[in-house]
């Protein structure tokens, strides 16, 4: 069990893990299951969250698994923010399963290309995903070259 501060509140967290087989969960690649018990504040009700990872216990022990769960918001505020807020992914009304998969794949390729582009020196206010999208809308061949040519 670990007691720590989370957004100015005392929080108790405990994680129990066990190895599983993918067939047990019906999830390809599943190797470990975690049951996280969390309570924020003295009077708060305990929350239970179930977690799954493809890493085996020798690669990810319970302590590292607990830390990985805490770092979840790094993904939420990075990739998710770019896909949903800037990329408007949730507003797409595509119903064909294949089209959803392809659009999702290309959206992630776009975020990867943006991340490489944003790592180069430029003004901070210009290093935004919407700015990158607008520039590429006017320079379509540039983005096609980015996708088909090897990085330099």
Main structural class? alpha+beta
Q: How do the strands line up in the largest sheet?
A: 1-2-3-4
Shape: extended
Overall mean pLDDT score? 83
Structural domains: how many: 2
Structure summary:
This protein has helices at 22-25, 62-70, 72-86, 97-118, 129-138, 140-148, and strands at residues 2-6, 9-19, 32-40, 47-53. It is of the alpha+beta class and 152 residues long.
Task: Provide an overview of this structure.
With 152 residues, the chain is of the alpha+beta class. Strand 1 and strand 2 form a beta hairpin. The protein starts with a strand and ends with a helix.
Secondary-structure topology with pairs:
Layout: E1 2-6, E2 9-19, H1 22-25, E3 32-40, E4 47-53, H2 62-70, H3 72-86, H4 97-118, H5 129-138, H6 140-148
Antiparallel strand pairs: 1-2, 2-3, 3-4
């Amino acid at each position: 069990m670990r007691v720590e501060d989370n957004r100015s509140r005392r929080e108790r967290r405990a994680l129990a893990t066990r190895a599983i087989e993918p067939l047990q969960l019906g999830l390809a690649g599943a190797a470990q299951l975690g049951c996280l018990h969390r309570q924020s504040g003295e009077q708060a009700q305990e929350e239970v969250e179930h977690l799954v990872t493809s890493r085996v216990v020798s690669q990810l022990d319970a302590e590292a698994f607990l830390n990985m769960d805490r770092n979840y918001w790094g993904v939420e505020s990075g990739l998710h923010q770019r896909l949903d807020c800037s990329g408007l992914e949730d507003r797409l009304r595509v119903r064909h399963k294949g089209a959803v998969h392809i659009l999702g794949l290309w959206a992630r390729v776009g975020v990867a290309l943006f991340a490489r582009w944003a790592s180069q020196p430029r003004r901070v206010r210009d290093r935004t995903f919407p700015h990158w999208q607008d520039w590429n809308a006017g320079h379509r061949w540039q983005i096609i070259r980015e996708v088909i040519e090897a990085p330099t």
